[in-house]
Amino acid sequence: MKKVYLNKARENWILDRLRSEWYTHNQTISAESIFLADFIWICSPWTWKKVSKRQMKKKKVICSIYHIDEEKFNDVDLLEFRQRDEYVDFYHVISENTKQQLTKYTNKKIISIPFWVDQSIWFNIENKMNLRNKYGVPKEDFIIGSFQRDTEGSDFLSPKLSKGPDQFIEIVKNLNKTKNVFVVLSGKRRNYVINELNKLKINYKYYEMVDNKTLNELYNLLSLYVVASRVEGGPQAIMECALSKTPIISTNVGVAPEILSKKSIFNMNNYLLAKPDVEHAYKNAQKFIIPDGLNTFKEMIFDD
């Protein structure tokens, strides 16, 4: 039986979790050692130099690309992309948006499949009031959530503009004019948003890194989740909101147009008009729950 090896990010990040889920559900077709694999899936593309070049030359190589920040994509990045491209047989992307970007840089085959999402982790909790009591959030507040990093790694203060933390703050500030806004944050490097919320005197709670059970409860706590990114690969939060029936609006990035209603997708000129459509998102996400969401990847790898 042929097997696939997935490389590691080792960042306590979404890809480490997805890799773990893959190995949990696909033990018979997965190799923990690259030497025992027939296929190599570079699912953490920035770590590709740690993958054995000798093994990549011997085996079929799939590489996932999540997004390309073209404002930052310089000659050094292009050189590294071309070096890696020499070893890659075909590419995987998780959205049609990224596929359009990637066609500018390679002639290799590109397959677009959003990542699977585990419905045993992300689900709707009906009693929202119990959650508000548990997390100490005022019953009358409008709770807005954001669970992805917003600052660069160099100084923990400069906003990571591709993630749109400045746009998130603008949305929160304007919604706070008509609603009593309370912000819930999670994830690493939230310094920029926290500093801005302090300046605006908007109440918030910050849960840096939490387990999946807690994160699902935080989703269910929300009145609204906002994806304000300028550039994105997923984000997986769109899928997680969809399954947990969390109201969500998003910029037109990543998988947003494949999962969310058109009326839930905004730009910075019309964000106040954006409306969540929980049932639309939930229905679209059903195609990617386990096992169906995993089976499409098996077909991608072994049937190509």
Question: What attributes characterize this protein structure?
Answer:
about 300 residues; alpha/beta; Rossmann fold; 2 domains; 6-stranded parallel sheet; 12 helices; about 35% helix; about 15% strand
Q: Mind sketching the topology for me?
A:
Elements: E1 4-6, H1 14-25, E2 39-42, H2 53-58, E3 60-65, H3 75-85, E4 90-93, H4 96-102, E5 109-112, H5 128-135, E6 142-146, H6 165-175, E7 181-186, H7 191-200, E8 204-207, H8 212-221, E9 224-227, H9 236-244, E10 248-251, H10 256-259, E11 265-266, H11 278-285, H12 292-302
Parallel strand pairs: 1-2, 2-3, 3-4, 4-5, 6-7, 6-9, 7-8, 9-10, 10-11
Would you give an account of this structure?
- It is a single chain.
- The protein is of the alpha/beta class and 304 residues long.
- It has 2 domains: 4-116 and 289-302, Rossmann fold, CATH 3.40.50; 128-288, Rossmann fold (3-Layer(aba) Sandwich).
- Helix content is 35%, strand content 15%.
- The protein contains 12 helices and 11 strands.
- It has helices at 14-25, 53-58, 75-85, 96-102, 128-135, 165-175, 191-200, 212-221, 236-244, 256-259, 278-285, 292-302, and strands at 4-6, 39-42, 60-65, 90-93, 109-112, 142-146, 181-186, 204-207, 224-227, 248-251, 265-266.
- The strands form 2 sheets. The chain has a 6-stranded parallel β-sheet with strand order 8-7-6-9-10-11, with helices on both faces.
- Helix 4 links the parallel strand 4 (90-93) and strand 5.
- Helix 5 (128-135) packs across helix 8.
- The two termini are 16 Å apart.
- 37% of the residues are buried.
- The mean pLDDT is 93.
